[in-house]
């Protein structure tokens, strides 16, 4: 049965695509899964450095969990929203593809690595994880005929990935939540070239303007990390009954008592993972489909509809996130590892910047062959070459970055037969 919720405009791709038994959304999802950039997420930090223990989440397992939750939200709405029916429904494949892609642009060493690359790239146009995700799926994720190119995403996939729609340089002092300046064509692609209305100026207002599936992905992401960061924090010994109760005395309000009691009871029983998993269902079922009027509503039902989340559940999500930030992310152990990641990325960048952007002709191949070919393109200016170096660092796993660091700076490490 055809799904009239989406039209040909939603499924349009930058380049003509061959047709098979799959929908365009399913093909995008499949191509994401069978891609090295997606697999590398298994070696990138979520909360704790990858490889520290087998059962902690990585960016890969987090992305899989977000995809499952996003798919469940779409199924919940398809079965329960009065505006939807068979043949007019939200596509779970599209929601899962967006969720699988949402963190694919994140660099090694978690959010600390993202901050480091932005600091280093500020003279060349900045770095942002969401912008890097768009760069991968739209520009560089596949290599064809020696050229780096994207996976030929549908308009709906690009739109769903784009949490932020403000370009670098449009507002002062941008530390995050922007797209690269050369990504303006993607904004024009998703909006059919329409101008932004006066009520959506660059900055937070425009960044909150998101398609239906992007909203679903964002709530699935909030659900996954707020619940699962608590579980990983408990397993690592950072979150305990005593620490949660002490934190609550200072930071929690009367409206948080039920959620605090639910968490501390699970901690006493030793059933935190089961308790948090049960909470996923509550978070999924807190979503309602609503109609809205936007300047793109006439083009797609993705802009005609949006979601709202029950405020009590949003409050609980924010509470759990605050607990994880204060008890886990701000712990000396995690901060020390973030400092080390910042130090290594900074030294790696300095070595590459001196070699490839220092004004002379590079005489050593410090990059892998595909990146050497890319950075040697005659049409690239200095910011363009810097962006290639940033791509190289951002694509590294935690372990790969550590090994390259040792090879470059540790006199006792490395040989010509080492696998990178």
Walk me through the structure.
With 420 residues, the protein is mainly alpha-helical. 55% of the residues lie in helices and 4% in strands. It has helices at 8-11, 24-33, 36-39, 59-80, 92-101, 110-121, 129-140, 155-161, 184-190, 204-207, 212-235, 241-251, 257-269, 272-284, 301-304, 311-329, 332-356, 369-375, 382-394, 398-409, and strands at residues 142-144, 147-149, 287-291, 305-309. A hairpin with a 2-residue loop joins strand 1 (142-144) and strand 2 (147-149). Helix 5 (92-101) packs across helix 11 (212-235). The termini are far apart. 45% of the residues are buried. The mean pLDDT is 91.
Mind summarizing the main beta sheet?
A: 2 strands, antiparallel
Name of the CATH first level of the largest domain: Mainly Alpha
Biggest sheet: strands side by side, in what order? 1-2
Task: Give the uncertain stretches in residue-range form.
Answer: none
CATH fold node name of the largest domain: Hypothetical protein af1432
CATH architecture of the largest domain: Orthogonal Bundle
Q: Which structural class do the helices and strands define?
A: mainly alpha
SSE succession: HHHHHHHEEHHHHHHHEHEHHHHH
> How much strand?
under 5%
What's the CATH H-level superfamily name of the largest domain? Hypothetical protein af1432
The figure for the number of domains is: 3
State mean pLDDT (0 to 100 scale): 91
Main features:
two-stranded antiparallel ribbon; 3 domains; mainly alpha; globular; 420 residues; 20 helices; Hypothetical protein af1432
Report a brief summary of the structure:
The protein is mainly alpha-helical and 420 residues long.
């Amino acid at each position: 049965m055809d799904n009239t919720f989406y039209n040909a405009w939603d499924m349009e791709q930058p380049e003509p695509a061959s047709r098979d038994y799959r929908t365009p959304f399913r093909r995008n999802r499949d191509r994401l899964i069978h891609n090295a950039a997606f697999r590398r997420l298994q070696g990138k930090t979520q909360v704790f450095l990858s490889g520290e223990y087998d059962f902690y989440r990585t960016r890969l397992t987090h992305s899989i969990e977000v995809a499952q939750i996003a798919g469940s939200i779409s199924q919940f709405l398809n079965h329960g929203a009065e505006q939807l029916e068979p043949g007019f429904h939200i596509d779970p494949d599209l929601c899962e593809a967006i969720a699988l892609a949402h963190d694919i642009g994140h660099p090694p060493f978690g959010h600390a690595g993202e901050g480091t690359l932005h600091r280093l790239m500020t003279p060349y146009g900045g770095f942002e994880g969401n912008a890097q995700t768009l760069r991968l799926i739209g520009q560089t994720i596949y290599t064809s005929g020696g050229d780096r190119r994207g996976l030929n995403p549908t308009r709906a996939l690009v739109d769903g990935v784009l949490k932020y729609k403000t370009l670098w340089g449009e507002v002062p002092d941008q530390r995050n939540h922007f797209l690269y300046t050369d990504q303006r064509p993607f904004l024009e692609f998703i909006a059919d070239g329409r101008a932004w209305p006066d009520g959506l100026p660059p900055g937070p207002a425009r960044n909150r303007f998101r398609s239906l599936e992007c909203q679903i992905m964002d709530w699935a992401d909030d659900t996954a990390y707020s619940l699962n960061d608590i579980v990983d924090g408990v397993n690592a010994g950072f979150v305990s009954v005593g620490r949660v109760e002490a934190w609550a005395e200072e930071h929690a309000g009367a409206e948080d008592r039920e959620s605090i009691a639910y968490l501390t009871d699970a901690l006493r029983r030793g059933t935190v993972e089961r308790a948090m998993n049960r909470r996923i269902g509550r978070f999924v079922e807190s979503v309602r489909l609503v109609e809205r009027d936007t300047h793109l509503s006439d083009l797609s039902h993705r802009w005609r509809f949006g979601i709202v989340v029950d405020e009590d559940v949003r409050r609980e999500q924010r509470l759990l996130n605050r607990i994880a930030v204060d008890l886990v992310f701000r712990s000396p152990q995690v901060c020390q590892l973030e400092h080390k990641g910042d130090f290594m990325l900074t030294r790696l960048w300095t070595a590459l910047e001196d070699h490839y952007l220092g004004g002379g002709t590079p005489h050593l191949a410090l990059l892998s062959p595909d990146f050497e070919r890319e950075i040697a393109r005659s049409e690239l200016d200095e910011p363009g070459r810097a962006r290639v170096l940033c791509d190289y660092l951002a694509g590294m796993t935690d372990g790969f970055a550590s090994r390259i660091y040792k090879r470059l700076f540790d006199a006792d490490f490395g040989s010509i037969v080492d696998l990178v």
